[in-house]
Amino acid sequence: MYLPLLFIFPLLFISSQGSVQDFCVGDLSLPNGPAGYSCKKSSKVTENDFVYHGLAIAGNTTNIIKAAVTPAFDAQFPGVNGLGISIARLDLAVGGVIPFHTHPGASEILVVIQGTIYAGFISSFDNVVYLKTLNKGDVMVFPQGLLHFQVNPSKIPAIAFASFGSSNPGLQITDFAFFKNDLPTELLAETSFLDVAQIKKLKGVLGGTN
Amino acid sequence: MYLPLLFIFPLLFISSQGSVQDFCVGDLSLPNGPAGYSCKKSSKVTENDFVYHGLAIAGNTTNIIKAAVTPAFDAQFPGVNGLGISIARLDLAVGGVIPFHTHPGASEILVVIQGTIYAGFISSFDNVVYLKTLNKGDVMVFPQGLLHFQVNPSKIPAIAFASFGSSNPGLQITDFAFFKNDLPTELLAETSFLDVAQIKKLKGVLGGTN
Amino acid sequence: MYLPLLFIFPLLFISSQGSVQDFCVGDLSLPNGPAGYSCKKSSKVTENDFVYHGLAIAGNTTNIIKAAVTPAFDAQFPGVNGLGISIARLDLAVGGVIPFHTHPGASEILVVIQGTIYAGFISSFDNVVYLKTLNKGDVMVFPQGLLHFQVNPSKIPAIAFASFGSSNPGLQITDFAFFKNDLPTELLAETSFLDVAQIKKLKGVLGGTN
Amino acid sequence: MYLPLLFIFPLLFISSQGSVQDFCVGDLSLPNGPAGYSCKKSSKVTENDFVYHGLAIAGNTTNIIKAAVTPAFDAQFPGVNGLGISIARLDLAVGGVIPFHTHPGASEILVVIQGTIYAGFISSFDNVVYLKTLNKGDVMVFPQGLLHFQVNPSKIPAIAFASFGSSNPGLQITDFAFFKNDLPTELLAETSFLDVAQIKKLKGVLGGTN
Amino acid sequence: MYLPLLFIFPLLFISSQGSVQDFCVGDLSLPNGPAGYSCKKSSKVTENDFVYHGLAIAGNTTNIIKAAVTPAFDAQFPGVNGLGISIARLDLAVGGVIPFHTHPGASEILVVIQGTIYAGFISSFDNVVYLKTLNKGDVMVFPQGLLHFQVNPSKIPAIAFASFGSSNPGLQITDFAFFKNDLPTELLAETSFLDVAQIKKLKGVLGGTN
Amino acid sequence: MYLPLLFIFPLLFISSQGSVQDFCVGDLSLPNGPAGYSCKKSSKVTENDFVYHGLAIAGNTTNIIKAAVTPAFDAQFPGVNGLGISIARLDLAVGGVIPFHTHPGASEILVVIQGTIYAGFISSFDNVVYLKTLNKGDVMVFPQGLLHFQVNPSKIPAIAFASFGSSNPGLQITDFAFFKNDLPTELLAETSFLDVAQIKKLKGVLGGTN
């Protein structure tokens, strides 16, 4: 039976106190916790909190790796706080390299937007290597926490977007972890099996000490 | 003290039975469970399981909505099974519309690759509407389960990628749920407050019965 | 060997600092986060924090839908904060209707306490409709995020309790999302395929503008 | 701009292989896993899978505790499998007692449907006791894993529904765990500090041996 | 092609605001939430936050149970906050007993370091008892929320470490919950089936009242 | 009011079909899924499924790293399947080194049982190094997915147990990932910034090719 509606009908659902929480835009000025940042008051949330323009501009690839990663994680894009998702832009100039790295907290999907990317990851079981050349529109998934890399093997710049199943996936670049801090050279030699000369060379390049 | 390594050293880590599970490529022929598909045997997994080419081709937009959604969820791209992430390609021709829909199981990040997209979602609290025009490179997040839409307001075709924090986010298009099945017209009128004539018209368009 | 206990025995477990956290009664005056409200200090928690009387009274059904939903979510009943569960009372007068809606964050179990309820939900896959008449004591489950409704098809008022697998399941009523706000009529027509006249009529009924 | 729809429009969303998984009705004949039972094939799922009639009938309270718990967990009601929610019916005759027990896997919300229930739980921190008398329509929450009980202190039978934030919350009744099995009496005396005579008496009542 | 690195290369990854959150050392002075304590500012975190010395010293077993549990949960060891793991030390003198207890929020793995431990747990299904004698180096797992105990059946003191899959597993000792508070004797008799005399005796031993 | 119990009382809780699932001992012969292995039938589960003896024996440290890791993950110890916890034994002879590695799926707590261990991890934010010397009974936590190492700096062998907040934490040793497979030398040079000579040397030591 069809129900004619002729008059305004009153509120069906009355939330007597507090608000229903559809989202939790991060307020970076409040304390954060294990699940993310505290929520911005909903009365102050606007449509701008859900949009990020920072990935529209190419990252600066005039560096020695000829590449740039521009993140839109919760710290840059507080609208994703608590929603279990984030994104980053990858720019790889000709010869560009995103060196071996891991995301401690999430798996990644990469989609190539321009150019060609040669990518790979290494399984922790038997150290199996999975390598693929990805063209425009191709998608590759990198399971959580595993070492992976991306390089531009072609003659034109490459662009890709990497999505993550966490608003705070983390990014640990092995070279930076090893060579871009004050980790003592002898200790690193002992725990990485790298030669002292190799370590000193890369510490020099990356600004590490000790 | 630096440790010289002159000889092959034996396996440090011996997994005596079974395999360490870095990933769980879905085997669609085996039973699935609440957490996803059963895993393909790791001996049969190759690099091709982690790559999907289906998003490289534009979806067919020669339809009345002038738009197409091409998913790479676990059912199409079993490599994402269990990894908590998936992706889809959106093609919107001039005048294209992805009508109001929800993803029951995940939040979404949209990144515009070409053209302009006008998008919005509606909060469940006070029915607040959040609307934005997104240009190339802009990113917008749609919190889990909320009604949202995307349209192409410009004079050129638009392309976007939508990433999800689930390998199986689901997609429920309100029009399809209401008008593209055998849900009785009178019942739908009663539960949606839509006029019978309106319902019959849209059932006619979408192929619904009753 | 049986151990006779003749004297007071000292504390086995000494928590040297802080408290073991069995629960986290929400303090609505403190910031909330993605996982819920901050916890009330345990020294201030009493038995009253774990009990809610607000569902003992029938909701007011003298409205055009002849129905009422009374929630005991974390905002109303802070004792459930962080415990992954909440409840609501449904009152449906004769002819009462809870129109199509979703809960973005949780699945629902409905148990009928009085009268008869005709309920249904729509799958996102192939838009399959699942409809059932529920009598007193019958239970129905509505999977997370899917469109569903409840109506009272009988000659006596119906009462039900709906439980949710989240302390903050959310509630998005499609009609309210479409017609009870300032979403522009032409945009809604474009993204819902509804006729402008239909939209204007329902905006009129529900108090929407634009 | 409003979009007139005059013709059938083709499938917007084509799932090329497999199905979108909105739910996972348990198939009790297939192996289960840590997340629940394997899913029944969606082609075999009907509306009856989402409804359970077993709670419509009062449990048999003609026993020494004058009470009954009738569960609708995943093993009885496979429709809830994987959805993170379940329900049970409690019948307490006059003088009825649901003795101290825990649910290892979920928090519980109790709603009283008929009569009066006196309920309580014990915190693990400082062993604080929270006790309340609940009348018809009152709701109480019992945090996950904590010891709690329900008794009927009134002159009329009581009925309640208990909802859980898991499709498989478990139920461990302390008396049954201690006295309704072959746990050796001396070992139980040593680990519970109960007198041997008390243990033998209750083993006799509950059918325990050793 | 090998890429020579001759010069310092600039930051690849620039986090423009906020910090990437690898960990969340608990700040016990700030409000906690359902997911744990608020995070200590990362600028104040040192290596000492990740180390705990409190388990290096034997617990005092000169008590009537001849045993001690020394926890390193988030309240004692804030470095584990949010990381889903914690640990405790068990000391059992000759004849020592950790009486029946549960951890409401986590499963436990026990590893014996010294001596012999006789341990067991009780399943909630059919009250099945699982008992084992554990020697040095043996490991036993106790599923979440189930009643279990540990005793020292040997002639030498025993030491073990218990690890938990939560930074706040909780600990509810059944005797303490029943007898070490003001739970009224008659109510406990009714809900535990224990004799009043037995209850009064154990309340006397453990310091309970009422 | 105390309730005398003179007669056997019937089953309070009747599970009409299927079993309540307290645990899910892995059956390695059945398919696994994203949440772990399928469950062994409960009728076949014995106490032996919950105990593992494999950590009672020292790992063989007569190798070039003078160390051994012996895991009790779900593949070795199926009793932990689905319980979110596992453990491993570390043996470090004098001069022993567990080289830099990550666990992609879990945080780790290390407790030193014998000797002294010098351990450290590197944060992904600013590449901060956290280093500590751990003595017997000391505990250190390593947050999920971050590079860490352990060495024995003392004159006596060291033993430790490492617990993980997952039944399948994974273990990726950076040296093995880089040098113990067929990852092409030039590609590794390009993506790790290591010299070709260094790579060839370590591939020789570890058995890598290409």
Automatic annotation (TrEMBL), chains A, B, C, D, E, F:
It is found in: Secreted, Extracellular space, Apoplast. Keywords: Apoplast, Disulfide bond, Manganese, Metal-binding, Secreted, Signal. Residues 1-18 form the signal peptide. Oxalate binds at H103, E108. GO terms for molecular function: manganese ion binding. InterPro entries: Cupin_1, Germin, Germin_Mn-BS, RmlC-like_jellyroll, RmlC_Cupin_sf. Gene3D superfamilies: Jelly Rolls. Disulfide bonds join C24-C39. Mn(2+) binds at H101, H103, E108, H148. The keyword Ligase does not apply. Residues 53-200 form the Cupin type-1 domain. Its main location: secreted. GO terms for cellular component: apoplast. Belongs to the germin family. This is Germin-like protein.
